[in-house]
Amino acid sequence: MRPGRYHRPVRVLLVSANTERVNMVALPLGLGLVAAATRRAGHDVTCVDLLGAADPLAAVRDAIRGARPEVIGVSVRNIDDQCRESPRFLLARVKEVVDECRACSAAPIVLGGAGYSIFPEEALDYLGADLGVVGDGEVAFPALLDRLRRGVDPAGLPGVVVPGGGTAQPEFPRDLDDLPLWDPSLAAVADPADPDLWIPVQSRRGCPNDCSYCSTARIQGRAIRCRSPRLVVDEVRRLGAAGFRRFYFVDNSFNIPESHALELCRHLATIEPRVTWRCILYPHLVGAELVAAMAAAGCVEVSLGFESACPEVLREMNKRFLPEDVRAAVALLKAHRIRCMGFLLLGGPGETRESVEASLAFAASLALDALRVTVGLRIYPGTPLAHRAVADGVIASEEDLLQPRFYLAPGLEPWIHERLAGTR
Ligand code: B12
Known about the structure:
By secondary structure, the chain is α/β, with parallel strands linked by helices. It contains 15 helices and 16 strands.
């Protein structure tokens, strides 16, 4: 963009590039939050959600024609579907979107999003965009716009990635209460009458559980940052009044820290008429008081990623729980009639045929409402799993992991696929 007067608002187009419906419809909460913060900073923002578009590239063209943007932001949620057997590289579709933006507009293209934050330099290069934002976007993106409109080099700005500029430090604002809330009407498919729709809500960011394979530290950092439960519940109440009755807490682990979860439940229980919600639990310290509070507050289903029932494999994954913790959590959830979806992640370091059998038998003994079994661990850069994969000769040390690569312990293939046939 051409530098202008200091206070001139910038015309911004924000594109949610995700068109994926695998698992469930994931509304573009992150992009919506960036849009709200950018508007608050005084800019002129238009959003386009490609999820609902019959022809995503035509939707991009129309949006550019209508908004005449000076800066285009593209949200990159998924890189791939994390499926080892037949991986789909979802970034290829995002590349088409970026190319279309380039063909229709001279505006600089800025990338951001969960998937992008894992691969800041690699994705910038692959997608051929101009700039990127790692970590939270609400502070970094408006700061970047300010630099662009003043014609000042954005290199060195916290959270901002410039081509060839090396690793940028992510921006993780400490106080989430300072950041504005989103408006689901920005999402193309947000119809309150849609029975499959679960509106995403976020009450905290960051995760202190350094699981050996996980990329979340790059996206949100390790320190937990909580939004005040009262404000979160005000948001749910506001969305409830707009007709939305089902919510999905996208927090990495709803039960950590427990004090925050309990207070949140106490506030959620006051909403009239009652709303229902789902969340993700870490299978450690799932106490009786918390599960009772969750049930009273409208929780109907949890995702419980217990991954394995073998203590050695859990230790390799750096998990802080044991199979007996999982069994106790499931018993409590059942007692409160909360549906329980379990996840096994098989094939990591230390996995053997025996440990696979033990995990499958354990999962069956829990009589879960649903069980998802994944074989092979997606290798993310900078994780202990990536170092282990290099040491074990699974990947080369300099390998680009943008194209999905997986760790599978030796001696399991092809047996494991035959063993699992019919169970997935
Ligand atoms: C909750 C969650 C889910 C839920 C979604 C529920 C729902 N209703 O939304 C469920 C369990 C259903 C799910 C499913 C899947 N997920 Co998921 N999910 C997450 C999780 C934990 C949080 C995502 C979230 O909502 N964050 C909250 C919002 C507010 O944050 P945000 O989107 O990151 O946005 C912020 C910044 O990124 C930035 N930003 C965002 N957009 C933009 C744009 C611009 C221009 C800028 C500047 C900044 C910016 O600013 C925002 C505000 O600070 C992340 C991991 C994580 N910790 O991020 C994985 C994650 C996004 N999921 C991932 C994957 C792979 C999937 C699936 C493909 C798995 C599968 N095979 O089923 C599906 C795809 C679903 C779909 N249809 O797209 C991967 C993506 C990486 C990759 N390999 O592609 C992640 C990163 C987890 C991981 N393995 O590392 N997921």
